[in-house]
Design brief:
237 residues; mainly beta; 6-stranded antiparallel barrel; 3 helices; globular
Length: 237
């Protein structure tokens, strides 16, 4: 079944498997299929994070999501071996569950470089009143940053302001969707925050959108797939 849907060159996400209640500990990396060995084994590129190679541990199991021409497919897979050939580092992965259709489109991430703004929400601000806070409090100060990936479920961004893990922010950005410029001001919760070692004073954050309207989520997903189609046309081109 693997070779029926997954092809060499397909992109994939590798996500750590965590215990229930520890979702904020999840880490996710992007990779690509190098070779399909059999119906339950394949080679993938060693994932990178900010140019640093991530040496995933042997025998560790991960969630895999494949981006194929037929849609998104997922499974669990175990790292069998780490290899190097012709200065190319790769992982041998063994599927430990069957491949299944991946329906959660909101988690399909697109790498990007987009301007954004963020502002920490006061700790005593109640969720039901967030829209009032946004509209009435004209003294809110937004800090600039760069969004480096986005999905219907959240975003990753870099800024000179650090937002601690667990803090809540207003997150503003614009996307060009279906020929129209859309503006978004969303409520987000910071799942990960860390200073970038190679860029002192800059911080990487992973943000989960909360209380997001269905229309906003669908609009973001539409943008992602429009951009992905543009990338594929350029690659063929």
């Amino acid at each position: 079944m693997l070779s029926k849907y997954v092809k060499v060159g397909d992109k994939l996400d590798i996500e750590t498997v965590v215990r229930p209640g520890r979702e904020s500990d999840k880490r996710q990396f992007r990779s690509v299929v190098y070779d399909i060995i059999s119906e339950d084994e394949l080679k993938i590129a060693m994932p990178l994070d900010h140019g640093k190679m991530i040496l995933l541990p042997i025998d560790k199991e991960f969630n895999i999501c494949f981006y194929t021409k037929s849609g998104l497919y997922q499974c669990l897979a175990r790292v069998v071996d780490r290899m190097k050939a012709d200065n190319v580092y790769s992982l041998l992965m063994e599927l430990t569950t069957d491949l299944s259709k991946y329906q959660r489109r909101e988690y399909y991430r697109l790498n990007c470089v987009l301007d954004m703004k963020a502002s920490k929400i006061a700790d005593d601000a109640d969720d039901p009143n967030l829209e009032k806070v946004e509209l009435i409090d004209t003294d809110i100060t937004f800090d600039n940053g760069i969004m480096v990936d986005i999905s219907g479920g959240g975003a990753r961004f870099i800024s000179r302001t650090q937002y601690p893990k667990g803090s809540e922010v207003l997150f503003k950005f614009t996307l060009f969707v279906s020929g129209k410029l859309n503006e978004y001001t969303l409520h987000g919760r910071v799942l990960f925050s860390q200073e970038i070692k190679t860029n002192p004073g800059a911080f990487e954050h992973r943000l989960q959108f909360v209380h997001i309207m269905k229309d906003d989520r669908e609009s973001i997903i539409r943008y992602i797939f429009e951009e992905e189609r543009k990338i594929r046309r350029k690659e063929k081109g």
